[in-house]
Amino acid sequence: PVLVVDFGAQYAQLIARRIREAGLYSEIIAHDAPAAEFAAKNPIAIVLSGGPSSVNDEAAPGFDTAVFDLGVPTMGICYGFQLMSTTLGGRVAKTDKREYGSTPLTVASTGALLEQTPNSYKVWMSHGDSVAEAPADFDVLASTPDTPVAAFECAARRFAGVQWHPEVLHSEYGQQILENFLFNVAGLEADWTNASVIDEQIDLIRQRVGSKNVICALSGGVDSSVAAALVHKAIGDQLTCVFVDHGLLRENEREQVETDYVNSIGVRLVTIDARERFLSELSGVVDPEHKRKIIGREFIRTFEAAAADLVLEAKDEGAEIGFLVQGTLYPDVVESGGGSGTANIKSHHNVGGLPDDITFDLIEPLRALFKDEVRAIGRELGVPDAIVSRQPFPGPGLGIRIIGEVTEDRLSILRRADAIARDELTKAGLDGEIWQCPVVLLADVRSVGVQGDGRTYGHPVVLRPVSSEDAMTADWTRVPYDVLSVISNRITNEVDDINRVVLDVTSKPPGTIEWE
Ligand code: XMP
């Protein structure tokens, strides 16, 4: 395999996936694995990922530098690039200058690594320290205004590195550069066709489940729908889907999910009305992580209650319910601190919010995948396009889009504003370009306005249209002014209590997509 060394970056799995896309099998390995463990895996190349630490820190993640002596072609990215520099005789300097986001790169010489890329282009940076001097036998290939050594290679050793993140889509020519490393610098040949995730998962699910029954936490979104379709394909009628109406849904969402499901995938669907329960548990709560934990906990409790009912039914048929299917994706796992040494950004309700005393075993067939991979699998499974192309909506729903306490009144205000924004974006034909557009209610903020000759003292909503490939990074979508204007007019006219519409123009990083 091509080994991707995980230094606790949000990006390690993304790198592994880009390598899979290039047609080579790749696996992740922990940064502190001894060189012998690397060697035992017979790596054909090694990629050192980025990470949150500085190589000059005492607490920098451990790495067995004997890995550099294995004779395996190696590429360093960001932190990995700096680690290569210090270990192989270069120098990394603490700089005052931090580069975050899109940065112009100037290529001095392409070498093999930057072949077929132009003299200058934009790359995605996220670092504080910089390589001040490359190791002696390395050629410096490129620079940025603040980083004199932004890329280097050593053809003799088949080593290369870049300061930026070629694996994120916002880096131009990123895939080209990774492939240049694999095919030009390392001299590998593509030999791995997309192994059938579906068949593999179906076998696995059948083995684990046996004759037991399974329930699926269905949200109506892409992830849980594809997970349900996959499990349904594996075990058919042993699966029952449970849809919880937690009261944090968008307008008409429940009805839509019910029709979609009955009509298309054909699985058994039970809807549970838990609106009162969620609202009363959330009463008085303003802290985002607290909200997420409560919603995660109540989800599970609701399922347990639903399952208890289903168990009674199932007992008649002789099989208990032992498993819960969730459409957890890799970004959910990483951002809930699932990777080693990864910072906990927020607790996604389907991972970090789970209580410890959960009584189901989890089936998470999409846990290693990204959204676009899941969509491809969904299409393969025959899940209708209306579901597969749906924009993401977070499990905690509108609960994490009300900044402040969640109340019934605030929910209905936000629900209305959200419906208008989505309606107009769809009418403008922007659904394909926009990954999702959260509408956020700043419930504890008021501002003065004027409407119909009278003073208003209402709340602002924030429009957060973002473009992204996998939600790991995102940029704000340049929605045409005319469309924004219509949305703003309609929301301020049609929704009581909203007298201002503002636009969020922050990329991720540094912002996350949702506000909470
Ligand atoms: P953030 O806000 O972390 O969002 O940049 C990344 C993507 O994940 C969605 N999201 C969630 N999805 N449960 C989910 O199923 C959650 O708790 C959750 N929180 C955020 C968000 O809408 C975006 O698509």
UniProtKB/TrEMBL annotation:
Please state the gene responsible for encoding this protein. guaA
| Catalysed reaction, written as an equation | XMP + L-glutamine + ATP + H2O = GMP + L-glutamate + AMP + diphosphate + 2 H(+)
Positions of ATP binding: S219, G220, G221, V222, D223, S224, S225
EC number(s) from the headed UniProt entry: 6.3.5.2
* PANTHER family tied to this protein: GMP SYNTHASE [GLUTAMINE-HYDROLYZING], GMP SYNTHASE-RELATED
Function field: Catalyzes the synthesis of GMP from XMP.
What UniProt keywords are attached to this protein's entry?
Answer: ATP-binding, Glutamine amidotransferase, GMP biosynthesis, Ligase, Nucleotide-binding, Purine biosynthesis
| Stated name of the protein | GMP synthase [glutamine-hydrolyzing]
This protein's assembly is summarised as: Homodimer.
Q: How would you classify this enzyme at the top EC level?
A: ligase
Q: Where is the GMPS ATP-PPase domain?
A: 192-390
What are the positions of the active site? C78, H165, E167
NCBIfam families membership: guaA_Cterm, guaA_Nterm, PRK00074.1
Q: In which pathway does it act?
A: Purine metabolism; GMP biosynthesis; GMP from XMP (L-Gln route): step 1/1
Q: Name one Pfam family in it.
A: GATase
InterPro entries on file: Class_I_gatase-like (IPR029062), GATASE (IPR017926), GMP_synth_C (IPR001674), GMP_synth_GATase (IPR004739), GMP_synthase (IPR022955), GMPS_ATP_PPase_dom (IPR025777), NAD/GMP_synthase (IPR022310), Rossmann-like_a/b/a_fold (IPR014729)
Q: Upper taxonomic classification of the species?
A: Bacteria, Bacillati, Actinomycetota, Actinomycetes, Micrococcales
Q: Which organism is it from?
A: Brevibacterium picturae
